[in-house]
Amino acid sequence: MKLQNDTVLITGGSSGIGLEFGKVLLQCGNKVIICGRSAEKLEEAKRLHPGFITYVCDLSDSSQCLDFAIKITKNHPELNVLVNNAAIVHRTTFADDPESIDKLVAELQTNLIAPVRLIHQLIPLLGKNRNAAIVNITTGLVYVPRALYPFYNATKAALHSFTQVLRLQLKEKPIQVSEVMFPAVDTPWHQGNPPKIAVPVSKAVTEMIRGLKQDKPEIRVGGAKMLYLISRIAPGFALKKVNALE
C-alpha cells in the first residue's frame, strides 16, 4: 500500500486513531474523507485540518449507511482505500444491566454490521481503481477478551473472522484486505480514563502505517503482538493478565 496520492475514506475519523491517521495521510498528499455521527466534531477536525472532506453519517443506521455509500460513489469515483475505524463500546456487567441487550444490538450495528455493509456497497467502486484496499480496525482483544467489555470483544472478534474470510474470497480481485489490531491507545475512546499501558495515538498510528506500507495482511500494533503470542502459548494466563490490568 503506497498511501500517497490515494483517496481514503476513514469512518470514525473525527477523533482518536481515525483523526490521527487522517492527519498523517493529508500530510502525505492524499485526499482524505472522514465521516462521523457528530457534526460538531467533524467541523472541529476540518477547522484544524482544512484538507479533510467531511460527511455526517450514523453508519449504524442502515438507510444512512446506504445513502452515504451512494454519495461516496457519486462524489468520489476515484476512492481506492476504505478504512473501517468507527466503533463504540459499553462497559457493563451483563447479568445486572437491564439494558444489556440494547447495548449489544448497538455495538453489533456499529462495530460489525456497519463495516460489513459499507464494504459490500463500496467493493464495486474499489475494484475499479488502482491500489485498492480495505483496512479493518480491530484490537488485540480479538485473541483475549476483557471482562469490562462484554460485547466489544465479541463484535471485534467477529470482524476479525469476517476479515480473514473476505481476504480469501477477494484473492482473485485487485483489492488488498488488511486488518490492524491495536492495543490500548490513549484516545477519547477511553472517556478520560485510559489504562496505564495505553500507548500514545501518534505512536500507534506510525506503527500502523509502517505495516500497511509493507503490505502486511495482519498488523499487530504494540502490545497486541505480545498478546497474540501469549494467547497461543498460555491462553489461561493471557486471560488472567488482560483482566488484571488497571
Task: Describe what you observe in this structure.
This protein is an alpha/beta fold and 246 residues long. The mean pLDDT is 95. The strands form 2 sheets. Strands 3-2-1-4-5-6-9 form a 7-stranded parallel sheet, with helices on both faces. Strands 7-8 form a two-stranded parallel sheet. The chain is 46% helix and 17% strand. Helix 1 packs across helix 6, helix 3 runs parallel beside helix 4 (100-126) and helix 7 (223-233) packs across helix 8. It has one domain (7-242): NAD(P)-binding Rossmann-like Domain (Rossmann fold, 3-Layer(aba) Sandwich), CATH 3.40.50. The chain contains 8 helices and 9 strands.
Brief account:
The chain is α/β, with parallel strands linked by helices.
